[in-house]
Amino acid sequence: MRVNEQILTRRSSWQRQPADASRRNRNAGVLGRALGSAVLLLALGSSLAAVRGAETQTRSIPSGKAKVRGIIDSRDGNKIHVREDANTVVVLATDSNTRISLRGGWFGMSRKAATADELIPGLYVEAEGRGNESGELEANKIVFQPSAQRTARAVDIRVRPVEARTGVLESRATEVEGRATDLEKRSAAMETKQQETDQQVVAVKQTAGEANEAAQKANTGVANVGDRVTNLDNYETKTTATVLFALNSSHLTEKAKKDLDALIQPLESEKGYMVEVAGYADTTGSKELNQVLSEKRATAVVRYLQEEGNVPLRRIFAPAGLGTSHAAADNATREGRQQNRRVEVRVLVNRGINDGTSAAQEQGSPTVQ
To answer: Phi/psi class of residue 248: alpha, beta or left (left: φ > 0; alpha: ψ in -120 to 50)?
Structure first.
């Protein structure tokens, strides 16, 4: 009887041992998969940090006249950070005298006044001005296109949610790091699954390497885009003239005509040039009257250039009447108002057509009283 009981007891023990071993194997498999997932997230997080930590340098603008082209990276008050390429940023300093305009019309020949609020991150701009002691460009003119503005707004709408999600992912990565510490303490119980875990780690390293390679390709793509946009619309100022008008008048004086003749005479042998004409008014009278008056003044200059200067119509941008914006002097004084009743004429040359010429400098013509 006792022998039979011993046989039954041993048989029951043999039946329980495979079940216990199976449960241990399943627990070890669960812990192994959890550890592999944690290592994968940590590796991808390291790759993301490597991409975001790419070194960016701020280029110092030398003293004197300069031109900057690029995409707005960020803004801090009146300081605008413009990215010229993947690793270079310049700082624009703006104030109330900075002229901000929107290029429009056929081939972007016309100008429309814009506000500083329209300079948003992601917008491709062109700026002109002078370098200051801080290495910043004190911008006196900023121009952008409607298509670039629409693109920047679309990018801004899409980027903000992505930035918010990035913060959530970073907090999750921190949480994963804490869990990984706990999993490492329990790894001693997973000796039977060590070979499978090693294979998972190898796969994670391969994924991290692919992520790093993708990041390098992305940086190379950004650099190529920066090189391409730098060569777009490559015009620069060669000569300028400022014509002043009497109060409530859009008629050209004899002196004004002589100064315009001196401006356009060298253009007979020039290639690839364009003429930009912008009219302004002082604050005397109503805003509507000043807007019309500035347009008439610009039109009078364009008419003289065409009829008397024989400047082809295709060489002249659509004249812009900018009213009382971009005042050249203080409207509170008589002398200041006289300086604001003006038309500014600029001759621009295309560097692509005039290959081999040095960068042209702006030349100021005498003003007409």
So the answer is: left
What 3-state DSSP class applies to 164?
A: helix
**Amino acid occupying residue 278:** A
Per-residue pLDDT of 34-90, as tens digits, reads: 445 444 444 444 444 444 445 789 999 999 999 999 999 888 889 999 998 888 999
Q: Which residues contact 195 (CB under 8 A, 6 or more apart)?
A: none
- Element of type H or E holding 368: none
Give the chain's domains with CATH numbers: 2-53+162-230 (no CATH), 57-153 (2.40.50.140), 235-350 (3.30.1330.60)
- CA-nearest of 230, 224, 217 to 86 is 224
Top pLDDT among 189 and 143 is at 143
- 3-state DSSP assignment of residue 127: strand
44 contacts 176 by C-beta, under 8 angstroms: no
Q: Which of 111, 367, 97, 165 is nearest to 256 (CA)?
A: 367
**Minimum mean pLDDT among 191-195, 308-312, 327-331, 333-337: which range?**
191-195
Q: Give the integer Cα–Cα distance in Å for 185 and 354.
A: 71
Q: Is 217 exposed, middle or buried (0-12, 13-18, 19+ CB in 10 A)?
A: exposed
- The upper half-sphere exposure of residue 251, i.e. CA atoms within 13 Å in the direction of its Cβ, equals 6
